[in-house]
Automatic annotation (TrEMBL):
Species of provenance: Agromyces atrinae
HTH tetR-type domain boundaries: 18-78
Domain of life where this protein originates: Bacteria
Name under which the protein is recorded: AcrR family transcriptional regulator
Alphabetized InterPro entries for the sequence: Homeodomain-like_sf (IPR009057), HTH-type_TetR-like_transc_reg (IPR050109), HTH_TetR (IPR001647), Rv0078-like_C (IPR049484)
Keyword annotations of the record: DNA-binding, Transcription, Transcription regulation
DNA-binding region listed in the record: 41-60
Pfam families, alphabetized: TetR_C_41, TetR_N
Molecular function terms from GO: DNA-binding transcription factor activity; transcription cis-regulatory region binding
Length: 209
């Protein structure tokens, strides 16, 4: 009985730690999205969470450490949205375009746009930010492009350059959506341009033997 009680106590404490960590990330996401990283004070953040500064430092060594966790959460949410949209049995081109649209739609969320695209590269530095992006959204972009190559939709030449150009273009459109009251027309326009861009990358027809 004592062993069961001790195990239950350890489990409860672990669950409490997980809940407090998740709460800090949720509150920090809201504050960073609203006020930006530099204008967010930790005192106000922990007060909003109903926790102490000691509880914060139990989970995160610094404000940047907390921001890294918030950024990672945003990266994962966007990647999940892209994966859901690009999943299924549709042709590779349809799935690729659906994934790109999902990225833009997810970026309408101020938490994603401000944290992921505005403050992320500034706070963490370009290299660290790029590492996180490469493991999530950029990786999915590369997978989608390779599927287009395999399907014969686009040429395989200079694929790394194509990926870099598309990534930059999609991020720029995502940033611009924050200034739009109605983002859907802007997203529609971006998708039309993307379709034309892909058309220009069509694989050359093989000569008939």
């Amino acid at each position: 009985m004592a062993e069961v009680t001790e195990h239950s106590s350890r489990g409860t404490k672990a669950e409490q730690r997980d809940r407090s960590r998740a709460l800090l990330i949720d509150v920090a996401t809201e504050r960073f999205a609203r006020d930006g990283y530099h204008a967010t004070a930790l005192e106000g953040l922990v007060a909003d969470a109903g926790l102490t500064r000691g509880a914060l430092y139990h989970h995160f060594a610094s404000k940047i450490g907390l921001f890294e966790a918030v950024l990672q959460s945003a990266l994962e949410r966007v990647a999940e949205a892209v994966e859901r949209a690009s999943d299924g049995d549709a042709p590779a081109r349809t799935r690729f375009l659906s994934g790109c649209r999902a990225f833009l739609e997810a970026s309408v969320d101020p938490a994603v746009r401000r944290i992921l695209l505005v403050d992320g590269p500034i706070v963490l530095g370009w290299d660290a930010w790029r590492d996180g992006d490469s493991a999530t959204s950029a990786r999915l972009l590369d997978v989608g492009l390779q599927e287009l190559v395999d399907a014969g939709d686009i040429d395989e030449r200079d694929l790394a350059a194509v990926s870099a150009m598309l990534s930059g273009a999609l991020n720029e459109v995502a940033l611009s959506l924050g200034d739009r009251r109605e983002p859907e027309p802007e997203i529609d326009a971006a998708m039309r341009v993307l379709e034309r861009f892909l058309g220009g990358l069509a694989a050359p027809e093989r000569p008939v033997e």
